[in-house]
Amino acid sequence: MTEQTPAANLVASGQDYEDESVHGVDALQVQQRYGEEAAKRMRQDGNSQFVDVSLDGKFASFLSDPWVEKDMVKDVRAMFPNNECQVLILGAGFGGLLSAIRMVEVGIRPEDIRILDIAGGFGGTWYWNRYPGLSCDIESYCYLPLLEETGYIPHHRYSQGEEIREYANLLAKKWGISDSAVFQTQAQKLVWDEKSKEWQVKLTQQRSGEEPRIIDVHAQFVVASNGVLNWPKLPGVPGILEYQGDIFHSSRWNYALTGGSPSDPLLTKLEGKRVAIVGTGATAIQIVPELARWAKHVYVVQRTPASVSDRQQRTTDEEWFRSNVATSKGWQRERLRNFHQHFTLDQPPSTNLCDDGWTRAPALVGLAGNPAGPQSMEEIPAYMGKLHEVDLPRQQALRSHVESVVNDAAVAEKLKAWYPSWCKRPLFHDEYLSTFNRSNVTLVDTVGKGLDKITVDSIVVGDQTYPVDIIIFATGFRAPFIGSPAEKANVSIVGRDGKSMSEEWAREGPSTLHGVLDANFPNLFLSGPWQASNSPNYLFNLDFLAKHSAHILGDAKRQAEGKRFVVSVTKEATDAWGMQVLMHSFPGAAILGCTPGYFNVEGELARAPPERQMVIARSGVWGHGIESFCREVEAWYEKSNMHGIEVQTVL
């Protein structure tokens, strides 16, 4: 573990660090600086400044699958021998896996489930992302689901990428769903057939080196669980396709170029190479130290500085784990509840089970949701004032930490994050900042503008040209809160009365109950986060919604008494739920004034007209936090007897 600076020690320990980090600081001047830095990064083209790789054929090479094992991908036609299945799950990441597992638990046989994914294996983002240095930023004892059920003990406090991917395979095997997967296959179109009361689905399988195989199938139930960060994006920089060197996106890491492998990332082929990495987000801060160990020179292209504190990684001592973590039945749910309860401006729990950078940042309530937040527009200014007051000491400590770690004062100044904690996902790494003390690492700060262009052999920022041999884009993915589940899956979904999900949600927003069933799309289970919940630990969110969907399906199955059935939700129930989401949305106003990023759709949310703001608020996440949402759903179980759910048997 690396030695911490005094400022970092104060943040890490949760001590009172006001005297060291805030003394003499004018809070209003800090907020003014926040506004100035946000304005530098605001662009009229908003989210359209990026190239969505999956929607532009010119960039198809950035989507090629370097991990697929052709012999492991079963023929789609063999997987649907009668062109049908009972439950079709879109997505083989953890959301799809958890959906399948929870369906099995309510009586659906694994052989009646089919799980589709364009990938060649389970894992979702952990299948695609295998870059050097990859690990999770949420404590593994919380992040990896079903630890209590599997008895698995994570190897590290923060699990590494390969371990997480292997754990996904472990879950699939344990619950008997390994053989339910149909890989390298995408649903192109889903159409609800009112006559047969089922979904008609057009599938395309594109196995490596073969012609596409197209098949029409029908499914009684569909689960849309395609994740929120799955389609890579590139900056819309002139010259990307003209560049003559090696180039790839971080989610398709090319070890053939760099050397090494996901399990042994010795990047020996980078020796003597000049490498540019574009981006300084959650991905890049893990990659940069690895590149710096091997490359002749690394250029780190920064648009917005990362807010980075120490991660404090450590291996898991199994005896400690059994005596301090897995101490009683229900331990993981209790640990997650404790984790969530620290996102509060009120008194947090007296015990901090995770004791990490997340739970020592109370102002992250601006991102996670707040039961004690504003109840009206009039209360928002005072609420924002309180958020800034609580957040200032932490942010000042982090800026002081940069100064104490980075030797070059000019570079340190450029690496300081000037935005509140809730505006971007907080980042944790033990080596990222110190890497800028190396002579072979150059920070290319674009002051919020990004690259100007790429030539055949160089990147260009302003009047400065940097010749490079390799360009790596660590520029993230399609914004997670744009569009409907149809857009998330790149699929057309047509429900009752010929209603297109894309058109309906664009016009009116979703019409769901608890984010899992939309009135216009029967027998189609959703996985949020729209009109549902959110957690910094997104797998908890996915699992809760998977259990909720399975609960509804299981109850409906019992009501149908062995007959085929349709499960849907009434308009009255969705209208009432939409109003509840709207009335709980006021804490979400915190992100509107943030520096541009995917939370606020590159600033586009703040520019939306008032009538659109209402639709956005009604479509968003439950603003009082994940535990409040869980209590709402659990209360519904106890008192409603499936209130708002309609179960229609099919003759």
Secondary structure tally, helices: 24
CATH topology of the largest domain: FAD/NAD(P)-binding domain
Number of domain modules? 2
The CATH homologous superfamily of the largest domain is named FAD/NAD(P)-binding domain
Q: Strand portion, in percent?
A: 15-25%
Oligomer: single chain
Radius of gyration: 24 Å
* Average residue pLDDT: 93
CATH architecture of the largest domain: 3-Layer(bba) Sandwich
Query: What structural class is derived from the secondary structure elements?
Result: alpha/beta
Report the end-to-end length measured between terminal Cα atoms: 65 Å
Summarize the main sheet. 8 strands, mixed
The 3D shape can be described as: globular
Number of beta strands:
24
CATH class of the largest domain, please?
Alpha Beta
Give the % helix: 25-40%
Low-confidence stretches: 1-21
Pfam families: FMO-like
GO molecular function: flavin adenine dinucleotide binding; N,N-dimethylaniline monooxygenase activity; NADP binding
Organism: Paraphaeosphaeria sporulosa
Keywords: FAD, Flavoprotein, NADP, Oxidoreductase
